[in-house]
Structure formats: structure tokens, C-alpha cells
Amino acid sequence: MKPTIDRIIAIVPRLPPAIDGLGDYGLNLAVQLRQDFGLVSDFIIGDPNWSGDSFVRGFTVKQVAEQSSAALLELLPNEEHLRTTVLLHYVGYGYAKRGCPIWLVEGLEHWRKAGSSRYLVTMFHEIYAFGSIWTSQFWTSPLQRNLAARLVRLSDRCLTSKQGYAEIITKLGQGKHPQVPALPVFSNVGEPENLTSLSERPRRLVIFGGIGPRSRVYQKSQLALQRTCLELNIDEILDIGPPLDFEIDSVNGIPVNCVGVKSAEEISDLLSNSVVGFFNYHTEYLTKSTIFAAYCAHRLLPIGTWYKGQDVDGLEAGKHYWLGDKYLHTMNLSAGQTIADNAYAWYQQHQLSVQASTFINYLRSEKS
Questions:
Q1: Quick check: 100 and 92 in contact, CB under 8 A?
Q2: What is the pLDDT of residues 74-108, one digit of tens each?
Q3: Lower CB count within 10 Å: N or C terminus of the chain?
């Protein structure tokens, strides 16, 4: 019988009002776990410079005074015989500038080994970085890998967002984690029902996300963006997200309307009333893109670039998303609807409520 717990500790880099996809993921998951299973999360923020309230969406929030193992241990429960479960949302760069959060791993090692009723579940949103020899990732990758391996072996259960990551975790765990679920990330801006068909929506194209992903669209995908607007008769382009540090030119004579940062509800409404969600993101990593998840959840036609020629994680180019930089066929609204429907159906298999059911099983399972 799985033990019953009603509270966990969730560790994230930041929470709203900071713009942080990982924090949004952790918060939305916590809301769903509370709604569906009565499980309450108490949050620990790993960024000492975060500025926010001590309660967010009804959850208590504490933050480390500094990025040190001692500061983390001050916030973690230390009861000897009371079962305590920690859910860590892990991206190395979320907790350290160069992706090497030694303080976090050491703090959790001390905490985990100090009591027999302490339980650690880690959601690996990333594992460690790879980079060319002239990048900092090249030099820090061995340490990042070492920290990830320590964290894998320390964790009682592991989950991740990509099948390739699951295979790496299995190897790093040296037999401890023979089965690691790969859960593509869910939409952080809602999962509306009763969505209209593309033909009933305004001919609007949306470019949504953080500064980096949107900058790549304008700087590296102009031809694909122009082609998309031409083939689908786009008459409005919306840019949703923080201001960029350069001026955005019109596309095929269509001005780009920059609406800035919006609430999740406002973004959901805009996506529900658009036909295309455009992205520039490595297609082998789409399962960890909250931007792609939002497009799929809102039954948009996802169109992107940056294709390596390999279909992974159940996603296929031409079936679940369109490539604006491939010129084998032209796109029309009828074909686009088929792709939008396929993307929407794929998303339903791992929507938020489905993921919450998976997480609760891992959070309430026995120690390994």
C-alpha cells in the first residue's frame, strides 16, 4: 500500500512574478496535485535574489538566503521519524550561473542521508550541457555531469521530459532507476476546451516565449516566417513576451504587434484565436519546450525551423508540426488543420491532469 502524504517540499529556481518556465511548471503542477489529490506543496526558491510574496497561489514560499548547502538545510524539514518528501525541479542553470549547483546537490546529500524517512523525487528538465570547445559548456560539462550523476543516485525516483534524457538517467543510475518516465512538458498558459477550427479563427500568427526563442525567430527564421505568412494569408502577427533589445521589422508588409508580457489567461485567449504558432527551437527537444506545448494545447498549427532530420519522442515533422524552412510542399489551412489536430491529440496523452496522476504515484511510492 502506498503511503499517504498530504504535503511535500517543492524546490524551484523562481516563481512568479519572475518570468521562469521551470517555476511556472512547478507551480501549475502543484495546483493540479492539490486540486486532484489534496497534496499541498511548500516551495523553496533556489534564487536568493528572487523577489516575491511569501504565499503564491495559496502555497507557502521560502527562499535561500544564499546559494549554500547550509542555507538550504535551514529550510528543509529535519524531523527524524516523520516522512518528508522533496520534489526537485532540476535544471543546472536554474540554480547556478554556469550550470554547476554544487551547493544544491551537497545540501540534498546531507539532508537525505541524515534521516531514514527522507524521500527525494527529481524531475530532470535537463541533465547536463554539451558544448563546443570554445564555449563555457565544454569546460563545465564534466562537473555538470558529475553533479547530475550524484543527484540521480541520491534520488529515490526520477522523471524527465525527454526519452533521450531517460536513457541517460538510467545509465547514470547504474541500475537504480531501470524505468524513468519521459513526460513532455505541459502548457503553462492553460489547456482550453471547445476550441474552434482554424478556419473560424482570425488569420493571426503568434510568436510567443522568452527573449531568446523569439529573438531567434526574427534573426534566423525570416524567410520561413515570410513564406508562412504568404501561404496562409496571415494578416496579423502578435509578439507575446518580454521586450526584445532590437527593433522588429514588418513581415511581408504586416506590422508585428508587440503586446508584451500577458497573464496566462490573456495568452490563452490570444492563442485560442490564432491559426499559427511560430517557433525557432531545436526540433529534437520539442518535448521540453513550453512554447510548443502551449501551441499544441491550443490546437494551433505549430510551424518552426531548425530541423536535424530525426523524429523523436513520438513527434514527426509534417505530422505534428510544419517546417517553414522545408520547401517540398506548400501549406494551406486544410492541411494545417490536420497537423493542428494531430498535435492537439498528441498533447492530450500528457496534459497536466495526466502528469499529476503520474507524479502522485511517484511521490507516494516507497523508498528505493
A1: yes
A2: 999 988 778 899 999 999 999 998 789 999 999 99
A3: N
